[in-house]
Amino acid sequence: MSNILALETSSHVLSVAVQKGRLKPLETRVGGTLRHAECLLPAADRLLKRLKLKPADIGICLLGVGPGSFTGLRVGFATVKGILRARKIPCYGGLSLDLIAENAVLPEKSRLAVCLDGGREKLFVRFYSRVKGAWKAKGRVQVLNCAGLAAALQPGDYVSGDALRRNSEALHAAAPEKNWTALSEKDWYPKAATLIRWLNKKKPALRRLEKAADFVPKYFRLSEPEERKKHAPAAAVC
Length: 238
Prior knowledge:
Layout: E1 3-8, E2 14-19, E3 26-30, H1 36-50, E4 58-64, H2 70-86, E5 91-94, H3 96-101, E6 111-119, E7 122-131, E8 134-144, H4 146-152, E9 158-160, H5 164-174, E10 181-182, H6 192-200, E11 207-208, H7 224-231
């Protein structure tokens, strides 16, 4: 069985996991500020050394593809592309929102909203239903504001994701009648070890990355410079 390296760089909590053969995966997480560029490779190196592996022993790469931090995602994708330039090995990716949903252990038929802070008062949101012990996505990723999420919530929903840090009070104020429940902060962030579990279980949420277009992060919105350019007034024609 191939040795696996998994990276999740979309949030403020960097997550790196390695599985050697059929052994249980080892995972490390680095929280706090977005210092992924300086922390990612040392974190991966420490795990490889604990398992007595070298970078050349990795046979499969896994990656959280977004949405999330533009900077963090670029670091993850650049690292994986560097690995693949040196060695042509299979690479698979999974949505960060789907990874976060996997952290939630809730009763059957529960409904979960995962919401990430997209900056500039935007939230990346996806809804899920608990069906036969697994999370089933209900529709596509949406880009909403806090009021939009409040309107989309149903009574008794659970909510997870780092957007709660800045929006929890506003969400409660906008939807007091929905009686929704925030999950613990420890479950707000995607984990690289979940990518490995998905690969081992052949989960369809994990997609093969092959074409050049596959190696572009799933931003789901324009960056701030791109938005400024889009809305800039047209230049006068003399």
